[in-house]
Each structure stands twice: as structure tokens, then as C-alpha cells.
């Protein structure tokens, strides 16, 4: 098994850190944690992580008598953002069954007592539960170049496309069935060349006032939203069985100004 050559495990840094922590009367050293990455499409990297971490735990036990009882494999299970990616990711069931099976097998082979196993999935639990709903503003066609559809949000509520080219799919909420389609770019209202939510998408002919629903924004959108260009952040609504409940109210102008300090002597 290959571990990155600068890995704290290979360099012995992790071992030193554990021994130091274990020697402290103020610390209770319970286990090992890792978070190996994000949007992981296969279970292999998690299986490698189990091998590496349990071998490390076993070495601590054999060489130093330090028995760790917890193993935390972090998050990272990927989810599809586009329809075409739907079969590309392991299900939560196979993730759980494969990981627990692997931990059992590895512990058996090392004669290591089964640790308490933790995982920290984020995106795979909440991403598909969320969508972002925009109102379409002006629609502008540059003949021979592109048709731009502007929405009342953009990189402030979803910085992922501008940060690292994240891709999304969308539909028209008020005309799901649609009609004749056209290819457009969905752009935000930040007046930045990077403020492109979806560079190219086929939608029914879009017009001002339409509702654009961008799917798969349940994770890393609300938490990443910003007041770039002093744009207020939108609210959050939970919907269940056709009933909507406001859980975060949209920001207002006074929210944006509430930290401003007016000089005692007045302005001017
Ligand atoms: C330590 C840790 N645990 C869990 C997660 C959640 O990861 P994901 O949403 O990819 O499952 C992250 C995300 O960066 C993380 O840093």
C-alpha cells in the first residue's frame, strides 16, 4: 500500500503525536480520525484508509501498548449533481455495508478488537434534499454568441461554479414540461465575468419572471453563501408533503448595515 511520502504516518509524526498526547494527564486519547477527500466515486479509497489506519492503530498497540478504541473515517462519499451521473456513486447502503465489512475483516486479520466506527458524511446526506429557486430577470441574446438568462442570485448564494467549475442541472419550476427548447447560459447578478451558474443548459424558452430551480444545492451552498458585492443572502425554506416552513429569513438591507457605526458627531 502506498501512502504519500510526506504523510504524517510514514514520517512518524502521527506516532509521536499520539505518544505525546497519551502521556498527558489532561488528554484522553480515544482513536484515529481521517478525512480523505470529497466527492469520492468509489469505495476503494475508503478501504485503503481502513487498511492504513488500522495498521497504524495496530502498530501503536504492538510497539507502545496503546490501544485505541475509536476509528473515524470522516466524510467524502460523493453524490450525483447531473442526471447522467446517477449510476456513478455507491449507495449509502453499500457504503455502510462495505466499510463495516472491511473493518471487521481487517480487525480479524490483525487480531485487533473491533473499534467503535464513526463516519461523518455531509454532502451525501443533504445535497439532493436542497434546490435553489431563482426568479429570472432579463434575458439577453448576443446573436451568434450566446443567450444569457440572468437570475436574482448567483455566486453569492452558490460560489462553487466560480470557485472550481462545479456543474449543476436546472429546470423551469413554472413550466417543467416546457415546450420547445433552447440552449442558454445562466448568469448571476454580481456583475462579474465569473458569475456564471451554468455555462450551457437546454431549457424551454425562458422568459423574464420564470422560476429557475437549480437542483442539488442542499450541501455547501447555504454555508458558503456570502455578501459579495453587499448582496443580501436569500432565506431557507423547508418543504414537506406540500407544506412550506421558513427556517431562515432572507437578509434585509438593515441586516447588511447593522454593524455600521455612525460617528457621534454625526455625518458630514
Ligand atoms: C473533517 C471532515 N469531516 C466530514 C466532512 C464532510 O465531507 P462530505 O460532505 O464530503 O461528506 C468534511 C468536509 O470537508 C470534513 O472536513
Question: Helix count?
Answer: 6
CATH names the topology of the largest domain as TIM Barrel
CATH architecture verdict of the largest domain: Alpha-Beta Barrel
What ranges have pLDDT less than 50 throughout 5 or more consecutive residues? none
Mean pLDDT: 94
* General form: globular
Task: State the helical fraction.
Answer: 10-25%
Fourth CATH level, the homologous superfamily of the largest domain: Alanine racemase
Give the tally of structural domains: 2
What is the terminal separation in angstroms? Answer: 69 Å
Q: What compounds sit in this structure?
A: pyridoxal-5'-phosphate
**Strand proportion:** 15-25%
Lay out the secondary structure.
Elements: H1 13-22, E1 31-33, H2 44-64, E2 70-72, H3 92-110, E3 116-118, H4 123-126, E4 131-142, E5 146-151, H5 160-164, E6 170-172, E7 181-187, E8 196-204, E9 211-215, E10 236-240, E11 243-248, H6 253-257
Parallel strand pairs: 1-2, 2-3, 5-7
Antiparallel strand pairs: 4-5, 4-9, 6-9, 7-8, 10-11
The chain binds pyridoxal-5'-phosphate.
